[in-house]
């Protein structure tokens, strides 16, 4: 009895820390097949793995296994069920065996229509669509297929799993409703994943569902009978029955980019065609062989592999290259429509190098009672291997055969799928990011490649918890003192002459030639509808609302500060929004409001040439300051005072004599006068005041211009004698300038070596006459070309990037873009 009392009580696996659990797994699971088998040791062990599985996979390279449909004694009338995993017994000493995964126990009434990134795409009898990880049991329910705009489909459950089509068609009669289904990425790693469906009866359209939720989106395209489709480098690539490649880009919800088909020429009889993503290379595998159910070994067949250069830049320029691959080096291919996999034999030496593993499908005509003859795809219960040879001919042999087992003859379109296991967890139960101390968070940021605010913005979008942690715990000082400016574009509207007021698009410059220009819709700006940006200064935006409200907004940290409305200084009765939106000519800050409580806001109002308005960070109303007549072209804050330049190249220095900005010292200097120029900009370049004048015009259609585009001068102020001296600048040294009215920036190329030294980056502004819709009146408007140019001083002007063909082409009606030098400081009231 005493011995029984002293017996140790068993402890739950879940009480062990994850470090110990992962150590056990790392010594016991060389592949996901063993991982699945090992977690079935006992109920507690399997539960502990489910609850504590890490965000990253344990073994990184995984050998795919074969997912077989649920077996029924009558294979012609199978009970829909996803439930059998068949790891390949590449070890000859092992007997082929299958696992009935408990993770798939709730799939009764479902069939698998696709396998991608370790997840299964399942279709239910009620047309429900879901994605399921067969290893971790994570699942995500999508919108049902009955919600799509396809009127030729019948969703009566009696026709399941085929889903009989209402319209009889020689191509698609009685075939499965989902022809191909594929994911763009692992949903556990990318919440913005996309699911692409090709419907059997929809040869002129496809459907996508975004991980951000929402309905199915229909995309119309030219006639395309898809044989295979995969995702690679952000694109979906499909190949049709006639071996034409088509590229789809659904990364922007509003567009589905379809490029001109590219035909693969070959000398094989008609057969199967597969697409494979092999370490970023797109491979096309063409096969031609015949197999009859009674044959145990394939006759001599033909397999050809083509390598397709999959470079996104070449996709856009439609420069498509194709070359035949004689050998696939140290890789082995597992072929299956929508689920092909490339595996390195270095990780799995039991595989045969330069080999192709595949299951075989053949067709047979069959008479069905009460219906016309139909063609049924039958899947042989075996896996074959074919070695790629120089002449494209080799012997296909069986790796294993389950003909005499319960899996013999997989009928009625329920084909097997290759599944590359993903041990990533979806919606992982972890501690929130904000529970970490700021020292750890900042260390993560500094070691994660966020040297620029563009990367910082992208990185903080990884998950909501991460973003909240940065917002709540960010320190008062910046993480990175020097920041590369990004371009803030106005919200796009299809009618560019009547845009919807909204501040919402950040466009980091792709100074790295390998990067494709992309934009971010910042969630921090989601509440800016009805507002426009009238200025950018010290990383903050000065915004103007329809109700004449004025506010400051940091587009990175989402901090905001409301100011007094514009109606408190200007009579806006009966003023239209079109006039109000152009009323503020220039707006600039004296300093970063997060660093200086005594900052000032300076406004120049259109038409008011003898006064300006200031607002102090200490509060109070707008202060009107009178000065001599001066039509401001640009204004910045420099060395404790505001510096402005007018259209006649006169310089004015505005210095307020008290902290409430009630007194103004206005000094006008005419020594800088030059012949009139097209545009003029002021820049604070490392405590040196530079004036840039444009001397040559540029037209929107041109990308190269000969000659010196900018004339640059350095201004030296001698306050004792009340004079300035002007020095011509012919070389900016290791600096690059980003110029635009009120928001010009100087950046050192030592900090950002991707920039060009001694260069000026600028946007083009030009004017045009248009006919107004109101009475046909001709008026002059300011247009902003959707491009950024670069001019090396006294050299050629070239286009850095152009968004002419994107949604940002033609920025009209004074809605100009702004350079924003990010401030990661937090504003504290």
TrEMBL record:
<dbReference type="InterPro" id="IPR050942">
    <property type="entry name" value="F-box_BR-signaling"/>
</dbReference>
<feature type="domain" description="KIB1-4 beta-propeller">
    <location>
        <begin position="519"/>
        <end position="773"/>
    </location>
</feature>
<dbReference type="InterPro" id="IPR005174">
    <property type="entry name" value="KIB1-4_b-propeller"/>
</dbReference>
<feature type="domain" description="KIB1-4 beta-propeller">
    <location>
        <begin position="98"/>
        <end position="365"/>
    </location>
</feature>
<dbReference type="Pfam" id="PF03478">
    <property type="entry name" value="Beta-prop_KIB1-4"/>
</dbReference>
<protein>
    <recommendedName>
        <fullName>KIB1-4 beta-propeller domain-containing protein</fullName>
    </recommendedName>
</protein>
């Amino acid at each position: 009895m005493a011995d029984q009392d002293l017996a140790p009580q068993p402890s739950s696996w879940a009480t062990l820390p994850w470090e110990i659990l992962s150590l056990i797994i790392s010594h016991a699971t060389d592949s996901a097949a063993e991982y699945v088998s090992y977690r079935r040791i006992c109920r507690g062990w399997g539960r502990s793995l489910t609850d504590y599985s890490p965000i990253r996979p344990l073994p990184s390279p995984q050998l795919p296994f074969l997912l077989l449909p649920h077996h029924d004694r009558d294979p012609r009338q199978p009970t829909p069920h996803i439930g059998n995993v068949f790891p390949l017994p590449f070890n000859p000493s092992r007997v082929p065996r299958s696992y009935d995964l408990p993770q798939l126990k709730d799939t009764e009434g479902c069939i698998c229509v696709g396998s991608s990134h370790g997840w299964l795409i399942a279709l239910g009898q009620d047309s429900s669509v879901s994605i399921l990880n067969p290893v971790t049991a994570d699942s995500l329910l999508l919108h049902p297929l009955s919600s799509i705009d396809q009127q030729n489909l019948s969703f009566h459950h009696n026709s399941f799993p085929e889903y009989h089509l209402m319209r009889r068609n020689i191509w698609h009669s009685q075939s499965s409703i989902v022809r191909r289904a594929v994911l763009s990425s692992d949903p556990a790693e990318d919440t913005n994943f996309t699911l692409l469906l090709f419907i059997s009866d929809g040869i002129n359209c496809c459907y996508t569902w975004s991980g951000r939720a929402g309905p199915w989106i229909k995309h119309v395209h030219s006639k395309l009978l898809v044989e295979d489709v995969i995702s690679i480098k952000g694109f979906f690539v499909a190949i049709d029955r006639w071996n034409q490649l088509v590229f789809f880009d659904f990364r922007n919800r509003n567009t589905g980019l379809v490029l001109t088909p590219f035909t693969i020429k070959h000398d094989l009889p008609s057969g199967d065609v597969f697409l494979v993503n092999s370490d970023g290379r797109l491979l096309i595998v063409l096969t031609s062989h015949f197999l009859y159910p009674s044959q145990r070994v394939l006759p001599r067949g033909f397999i050809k592999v083509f390598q397709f250069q999959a470079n996104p830049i070449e996709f856009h320029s439609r420069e498509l290259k194709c070359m035949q691959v004689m050998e696939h080096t140290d890789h082995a291919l597992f072929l299956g429509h929508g689920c092909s996999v490339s595996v390195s034999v270095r990780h799995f030496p039991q595989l045969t190098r330069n080999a192709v593993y595949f299951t075989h499908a053949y067709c047979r005509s069959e008479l069905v009672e009460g219906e016309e003859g139909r063609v049924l795809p039958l899947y042989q219960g075996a896996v074959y291997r074919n070695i790629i040879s120089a002449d494209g001919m080799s012997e296909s042999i069986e790796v294993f055969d389950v003909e005499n087992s319960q899996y013999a003859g997989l009928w009625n379109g329920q084909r097997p799928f290759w599944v590359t296991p993903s041990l990533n967890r979806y919606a992982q139960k972890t501690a929130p990011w904000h529970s970490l101390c700021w020292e750890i968070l900042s260390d993560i940021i500094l070691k994660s490649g966020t040297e620029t605010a563009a990367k910082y913005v992208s990185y903080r979008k990884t998950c909501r918890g991460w973003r909240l942690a940065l917002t709540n715990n960010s320190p008062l000082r910046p993480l990175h003192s020097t920041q590369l400016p990004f371009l803030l574009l106005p919200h796009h509207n299809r009618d560019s002459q009547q845009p919807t007021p909204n501040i919402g698009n950040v466009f980091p410059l792709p100074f790295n030639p390998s990067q494709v220009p992309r934009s971010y819709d910042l969630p921090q700006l989601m509440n800016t509808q009805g507002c426009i940006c009238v200025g950018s200064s010290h990383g903050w935006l000065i915004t103007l609302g329809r109700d004449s409200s004025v506010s400051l907004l940091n587009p990175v940290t989402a901090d905001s500060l409301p100011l007094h409305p514009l109606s408190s200084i200007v009579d806006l009765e009966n003023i239209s929004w079109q006039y109000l939106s152009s009323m503020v000519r220039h707006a600039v800050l004296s300093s970063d409001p997060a660093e200086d409580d005594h900052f000032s806001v300076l406004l120049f109002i259109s038409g008011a040439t003898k006064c300006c308005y200031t607002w102090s960070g200490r509060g109070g109303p707008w202060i009107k300051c009178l000065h001599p007549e001066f039509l401001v072209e640009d204004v910045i804050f420099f060395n404790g005072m505001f510096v402005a330049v007018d259209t006649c190249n006169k310089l004015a220095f505005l210095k307020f004599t008290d902290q409430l900005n009630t007194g103004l010292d206005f000094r006008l200097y005419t020594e800088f006068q030059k012949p009139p120029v097209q545009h003029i900009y002021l820049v604070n370049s490392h405590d040196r005041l530079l004036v840039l004048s444009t001397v040559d015009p540029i037209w929107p259609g041109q990308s190269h211009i000969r000659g010196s585009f900018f004339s640059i001068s350095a201004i030296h102020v001698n306050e004792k004698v009340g004079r300035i001296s002007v020095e011509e600048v012919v070389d900016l040294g290791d600096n690059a300038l980003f110029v635009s009215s009120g928001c010009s920036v100087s950046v050192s190329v030592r900090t950002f070596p991707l920039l060009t030294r001694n260069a000026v980056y600028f946007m083009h502004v030009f004017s045009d006459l248009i006919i107004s819709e109101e009475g046909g009146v001709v008026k002059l408007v300011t247009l902003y070309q959707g491009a950024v140019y670069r001019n090396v001083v006294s050299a050629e002007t070239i286009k850095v990037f152009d968004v002419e063909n994107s949604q940002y082409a033609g920025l009209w009606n004074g809605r100009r873009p702004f350079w924003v030098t990010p401030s990661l400081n937090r504003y504290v009231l």
